[in-house]
Write a structure and sequence with these properties.
Elements lengths: L1 H17 L2 H17 L3 H7 E12 L5 E7 L1 H8 L6 E13 L2 E12 L2 E15 L2 E11 L7
Parallel strand pairs: 1-6
Antiparallel strand pairs: 1-2, 3-4, 4-5, 5-6
Helix pairs in contact: 2-3, 3-4
Length: about 150
Amino acid sequence: MIRSIFAAALLLPASAALADPQADVLAVVDSALKAVSTNDATLFETLMLPNAIIVAQSYNADSDVLVTRSLTVVEMAERLRTPGRKIDERRTTSQVLVQRDLAHVWTDYTLDLDGKRLHCGVDSFGLVKQDGTWRISSLTWTAEPKGCPK
């Protein structure tokens, strides 16, 4: 009996080490970027809370704010359903903050359209864990047309 308890105690730290909330949160962010890059509106919708906040800020070449627009999850999903365009969005450096069932990811990204760098900027993801699943509660980004990495 004591052997079983001791063996179980040895396994506890190992199983706790397997739980990595930062990796779990980044996996959701990567899935969202995959949804954008593959025009997968269904995947995008499953990752988002239905009433999530989506805000985009686009800048012109002079770095003046060109437009700030808000989108619903449904509107963003419709944009992803646009056929005939090849998007490649990739995150670079990311900062991940997790406190219990809330998380935030701030990540630099690049976006190519049909093989040409369209813009870069910062993606900001707010996430909440509900019923054991991380979902995106807010998504905001900047779209900078110049100064992007190659």
